[in-house]
Amino acid sequence: MRDIVFTRRSGWIPNVIREDGELKLMLAAGADANHEPRTFTFPIGEAHLAVIREDLARHLLLWSAVLALCDAAGTRGRLDENAAVALLDAVLLSSPADVDALFGRIRWDRSRLIAHGADIDLLERGQVCAAMRAATESSNEKRAQEYRADRRRAERGTVLGPLDTAILRYTGQYLHGATVPRRMPDAVDPALLPQVMLVIATAEQACAGMRIGLDPRRGNRATDKRDRDRMAATVDAAVRRAYPELVDDAVRTVSFLMCSEAADRSRSTPVEDDEEAADDHADLGESARKTALSFTDDKGGEKKWLRDGPRTASAEFWEFVADRSAGDNEVFTIEDEEMGEGIQLHFYADSIARITTVRHGEAGSDPQYRVEYSLVDGIGGYRNLVSAFVRGGCAALEQHGPWMSDVAEFERARRRRDAR
After folding, report:
1. 40-65 in b/e burial notation, b at 16+ Cβ within 10 A?
2. How confident is the model at residue 290 (pLDDT cuts 50, 70, 90)?
3. Which of 346, 330, 334, 326 lies closest to 410, judged by CA?
4. pLDDT reading at 118 higher than 80
5. Which of 94, 118, 243, 374 is a Cys-bridge partner for 131, taking CB atoms 3.0 to 4.6 Å apart?
6. Which whole-number Å values give the CA distances from 222 to 84, 135, 161, in the listed order?
């Protein structure tokens, strides 16, 4: 039989219960192996109950100290009941000086106290009882999160200035650096917002005209890492040059914001038709264009493209790649059966092969092919090669070489590139 004897408005603060006639403190802490909350209990006396009822600060201090024991119990272990009971007199019935000394020796959950209004400066100086004079039953979890974020930065040797803090709040990354940044002007002190906007304007000017393209090799929404790195480096350099006093965290969050927004614009923009864009730079006769192509992958996937369809070959091919590409599916082929030529893209090796039919098979004999290899510089290089092939076949690829027919020579070239 379990009855609740005393509880506070905040359901997480430990309750006092009576179980089988015995007073116990009950608290939920941590989780078990199935991610269900764990509940711990241990016996207390009437004198401890009296302090818990009347003194919120001591109640919270006891909770903070016992939480460390619950953490030590892990997902399956038992609470060290003797250690928990030993805390009762030491925390609830001792003088403030003795309590302060105790908290200087034991592990305790600092963030719990901060969430319930503890004075952070006094806590840091070891004056835990004085720090709890302004304690509240209600908790402010954001305050505790900000404290933990500041501690993590301090461990890295980073101390934020007012503008650094304002920039991180503007992008929503003050608490968590991995959070996708966005623009939150209302989160910034109005007095600092104009300075934040000047930093953002510097970043926008630096990357004006730059874009982050899609990388269908990694799915429908993946973007080109090289484009992202290039934009980040450009923004970083411009912001550091204009505001050398900013810490790395503030500079990185600004470049992260610019890159995230550029990536979102690419994802919401229709796939561009590469070969049509390239026609502005190449004068090719209509007869050179492909009229029918076959796309295949390494897993038996296949798709046909005809010139009189609604989309260009490049757009159709890269959509096929985005839908089918995977860690175990990184070889894609474009073939023109009528002309007896094609290209094979090896995403795992940043290379390509162009294949042309030298002699068609006759009277049961196998056809003969000429296979030549070339290295490819990222997704941009692949797009150029696909576009050139669609416009003019294997002949149009000549200028994108060098092409190597000797496999050993090609492997040596690939190893030299990878070594760099």
Report:
1. bbbebeeebbebbeeebbbbbbbbbb
2. confident
3. 346
4. yes
5. 118
6. 51, 48, 35
Tell me what the mean pLDDT of segment 212-220 comes to. Answer: 92
CA angle 253, 254, 255 (to 5 degrees): 95
Cβ burial of 216 (10 Å; 0-12, 13-18, 19+) is buried
Do the Cβ atoms of 6 and 51 come closer than 8 Å? no
CA distance 21 to 11: 23
Confidence check: pLDDT of 296 > 60: yes
Which pTM value belongs to this model?
A: 0.77
Cα angle value 146/161/172 (rounded, 5°): 45
Q: Is the pLDDT of residue 220 over 90?
A: no
CB-CB contact of 68 with 107 (8 Å): yes
Note the residue count of the chain.
420
pLDDT band for position 281 (50/70/90)?
A: very low
Residue identified by tokens 């996708």 is 180
Exposure string (b/e) for 24-34, b if CB count within 10 Å is 16 or more? bbbbebbeeee
| Contact between 41 and 26 (Cβ < 8 Å) | yes
Which position has the token pair 């990184």? 330
**Residue 85 pLDDT > 90:** yes
Identify the three-state secondary structure at position 414: helix
CA 266 from centroid of its chain's CA atoms: 18
Instruction: Give me the pLDDT at residue 279, please.
Output: 47
- What mean pLDDT comes out for the span 367-383? 93
- Contact of 266 with 211, CB cutoff 8 Å: yes
Give the amino acid at 297. Answer: D
How crowded is residue 224: how many other Cβ atoms within 10 Å of its Cβ? 22
